[in-house]
Amino acid sequence: MNPLVSFFYFLSFLTILSAVMVVVSRNPIHSVLYLILTFFTLSGHYILLNAQFLAAVNIIVYAGAIMVLFLFVIMFLNMKQDNEESKTNLTKLAATIVGGTVFVILFGAYRKTVIPAFNPESFDSQVGMIESLGHMLFRDYLLPFELASILLLVAMVGAVMLGKREIGERHF
């Protein structure tokens, strides 16, 4: 068996296991740590797909910045087990129904998916590289890119305006 295929199966198993542990873990800190492991294994998949830029961005942005923010919020809230209210049977039943429905939808989508065979003549090794990603972003998706940047700018200005203190306002 090809070593890359073995590595793919190992990464896939580890990704699914860590993603399940994110949901199953009762301690929110452990869930965040499992989510970080999930992001690292997904970066491994990106590397196998020859998308090194996406792998680096995934590690820097998601596993780095966003997970630090999640950990900060969880520690700031100081969630304790004894304060947690017990979940009713109705809540558990609703969660089971929603989870089962999502599983059926995903399984139906998987069943209808047709994966084309590998064709070495049409293979492009530059598909996940920065240059081709930049060309596609600024040629095909320029308007959504600019609209997203304007939306982020408006959100930043709004956050600054909401956080700005008025004259005479008390500090907490």
Spell out the blueprint of helices and strands.
Layout (H helix, E strand, L loop, with lengths): L2 H22 L3 H21 L3 H26 L11 H24 L17 H10 L2 H22 L9
Helix pairs in contact: 1-2, 2-3
| End-to-end C-alpha gap | 63 Å
Compressed to H and E, one letter per element, the order equals: HHHHHH
Please count the helical segments: 6
Q: What fraction of the residues are assigned to beta strands by DSSP?
A: under 5%
Number of strands: 0
Amount of helix: over 70%
How many whole angstroms does the radius of gyration measure?
22 Å
Quaternary structure state of the chains depicted: single chain
Report the structural category. Answer: mainly alpha
Are there runs of 5+ residues with pLDDT below 50, and where?
none
Mean pLDDT: 84
The biggest sheet amounts to: none
Shape: extended
In short:
This protein has 172 residues and is mainly α. The protein is built from six helices and no strands.
Please give a handful of descriptors for the protein shown.
mainly alpha; 172 residues; extended; 6 helices
Overview of the molecule:
With 172 residues, the protein is mainly α. 73% of the residues lie in helices and 0% in strands. The protein is built from 6 helices and no strands. The longest helix has 26 residues, at 52-77. The model has no long low-confidence stretch (mean pLDDT 84).
